[in-house]
Amino acid sequence: MDIIISNGSSEPIYEQITRQIKAAIMAGELAEGDPLPSIRALANDLRISVITTKRAYAELEEAGFIDTVQGKGSFVAGGNLELLREERLRQVEGHLARAVAEAENAGIEAADLHAMLDVLLEEN
């Protein structure tokens, strides 16, 4: 699992880590039970504070994406297929909301937007 941190991003580092680990889990790159790097190891690899990685892992655990076992480490949580589906739905809804706003700004009517979506769905 490769995590890339951008110091120039307006997104806080812990959120960059959280987002990339969630994406890896949702894409199936990380499966249920897979171990994550220790907080200290990830901090060393990324050359960031242990506090930052600890916050990212805490956010992931609170959201149900990982489980942490004291003395053993953090692992991809099991049985979170519905959670993953909901996360994906929220992401798609966000993309669609941005597309609708862009279409409104461009003066594109709803029927035309529906037609564009239908064409895109047919292509896939």
From TrEMBL:
<keyword id="KW-0805">Transcription regulation</keyword>
<dbReference type="GO" id="GO:0003700">
    <property type="term" value="F:DNA-binding transcription factor activity"/>
</dbReference>
<dbReference type="InterPro" id="IPR000524">
    <property type="entry name" value="Tscrpt_reg_HTH_GntR"/>
</dbReference>
<keyword id="KW-0804">Transcription</keyword>
<dbReference type="GO" id="GO:0003677">
    <property type="term" value="F:DNA binding"/>
</dbReference>
<keyword id="KW-0238">DNA-binding</keyword>
<dbReference type="Pfam" id="PF00392">
    <property type="entry name" value="GntR"/>
</dbReference>
<feature type="domain" description="HTH gntR-type">
    <location>
        <begin position="11"/>
        <end position="79"/>
    </location>
</feature>
<protein>
    <submittedName>
        <fullName>GntR family transcriptional regulator</fullName>
    </submittedName>
</protein>
<dbReference type="InterPro" id="IPR036390">
    <property type="entry name" value="WH_DNA-bd_sf"/>
</dbReference>
<dbReference type="InterPro" id="IPR036388">
    <property type="entry name" value="WH-like_DNA-bd_sf"/>
</dbReference>
